[in-house]
Design brief:
With about 425 residues, the chain is mostly helical. The chain is about 85% helix and about 0% strand. The longest helix is centred in the first third of the chain and has 37 residues. Pfam families: MatE.
């Protein structure tokens, strides 16, 4: 049984999601701070290796968002058993992708590290070592994201909170111990990451088994998820290509620039994922409303979460702007790296209100299963706006500020398309299936 959408209901789903979303980037920030004090080269290696590993997180997000949309519609239509079956198949997809990522990383980490290090052999070696070890946690990472997806669809936000918190606390304790007292350095960070992701995946797998649903693969359901996943995959490819290119261009300006980019980027990821809590609540509730045949309720939610997105974006802009003199220094003692991070800061602050609105509306359209539009919009914004801007920044030697100006244009282009789509109302299609 579903509950009528109210702002109290949005908050009840968004607050636990906020904690879950904030846990992972908080750990990454801790990891960045721990490694940052090893020096410029390890931090730059983490930046490159971490950017490469976001491919695994991206694949997990693809599965998670597709699963949430399909599960939420089934749940809204009163079909809980079918909703859980969607979660089972999403977990199979996630695990398969995770194993593939782990295997590819063992082969491709070296060439990738060298390609992104801008000719710096030390940074390339550091990135390669970190990525090969950390990628062993990819199967667990993707199982956890799929688990988050189906649990959001049935509006269960409490258990994901406990699972993700437990794994991240373990990692936060292990990381400084393995890096410093154990003397493993950058490798210690990678081991802590892999252990935490594996534990998280096992916890979500146990939750799925407790539902007592059939665990065998179902080709018909898998096919439906793959159709939706195709659009989300292409959408994610355009998005990841943009951020991957940003790191590559930053690396061309030297190790201090890419290390400064890592600090700003991880803080930006923290803000975006925290703001995405409202989008996740919207995704679950919009999917349930449309699954139950209530298009007016879905439109009401779209208007309300848009306002909340703007408010949260302004709040982050104020905090990040006020913290410019303090925040970069929490992650490194290298003044050159701090100076580079501050080149990105004005753009980082300015994009926050627009990003808050964008992420809120993104959740609405994901909940509606409007993945083809999201795919096309992101491809156009990524390859038509960001990529040319980033390449121009590199060619004209505009530095890290130029890279972040291109990222801001990427956000604005996506937001413009999203506003037009939501206003049209063509996304609010009702029914138990997408």
């Amino acid at each position: 049984m579903t509950t009528e959408p109210t702002m109290r209901r949005v908050a009840a789903l968004a607050l636990p999601a906020l904690v879950v979303l904030a846990i992972e980037p908080t750990y990454v920030l801790v990891d960045t701070a721990v490694v940052g004090h090893l020096g410029r080269v390890p931090l730059a290696g983490l930046a490159i290796g971490g950017s490469a590993l976001t491919i695994a997180a991206w694949l997990g997000t693809v599965v998670s968002y597709g699963t949430t949309a399909r599960v939420a519609r089934r749940f809204g239509a009163g079909q809980r058993a079918e909703a859980i079956a969607e979660g089972v198949q999403g977990s199979w997809l996630a695990f398969g992708f995770g194993v593939l990522v782990a295997l590819v990383a063992q082969i491709g980490a070296g060439p990738l590290g060298r390609a992104m290090a801008g000719g710096d052999a030390e940074v390339a070696d550091a990135a390669t070592t970190w990525l090969r070890v950390a990628a062993l946690g990819a199967p667990g990472l993707l199982l956890a994201t799929a688990g988050n997806g189906w649990m959001r669809g049935v509006q269960d936000m409490r258990r994901p909170l406990y699972y993700v918190l437990s794994a991240s606390l373990l990692s936060a304790v292990l990381c400084p111990i393995l890096v410093y007292p154990a003397g493993l350095g950058l490798v210690g960070s990678a081991i802590a990451n892999a252990v935490a992701q594996t534990l998280s995946g096992l916890l979500f797998l146990r939750a799925l088994m407790r539902e007592r649903a059939p665990l065998r693969p179902d080709l018909a359901v898998l096919r439906g998820q793959l159709v939706m996943g195709r659009d989300l995959l292409l959408r994610g490819a355009a998005m990841q290509g943009s951020f991957f290119s940003a790191t590559a261009v930053a690396a061309s300006f030297g190790s201090a620039a890419v290390a400064g980019h890592q600090i700003a980027l991880q803080l930006w990821m923290f803000c975006t994922l925290a703001q995405d809590a409202v989008a996740i609540a919207a995704q679950s509730l919009v999917g349930a409303e449309l699954g139950g045949g209530r298009a007016d309720g879905a439109r009401w939610l779209a208007r309300r979460v848009a306002l909340v997105g703007i408010v949260t974006g302004v709040g982050f802009a104020v905090v990040i702007g006020a913290g410019a003199a303090v925040l970069p220094g929490l992650f490194t003692d290298d003044q050159a790296v701090i100076d580079q991070a501050l080149l990105a800061w004005p753009w980082f602050v300015a994009m926050q209100p627009f990003a808050g609105l964008l992420f809120a509306l993104d959740g609405v359209l994901l909940g509606a299963g409007d993945t083809r539009f999201l795919r096309n919009l992101t491809i156009v914004a990524g390859f038509g706006v960001f990529m040319p801007g980033a390449l121009l920044a590199g060619r004209l030697d505009l530095g890290l500020g130029g890279v972040w100006a291109a990222l801001t244009l990427f956000i604005l282009a996506r937001l413009a398309g999203m506003l037009l789509r939501v206003r049209s109302g063509r996304w609010a299609r009702v029914g138990a299936t997408v």
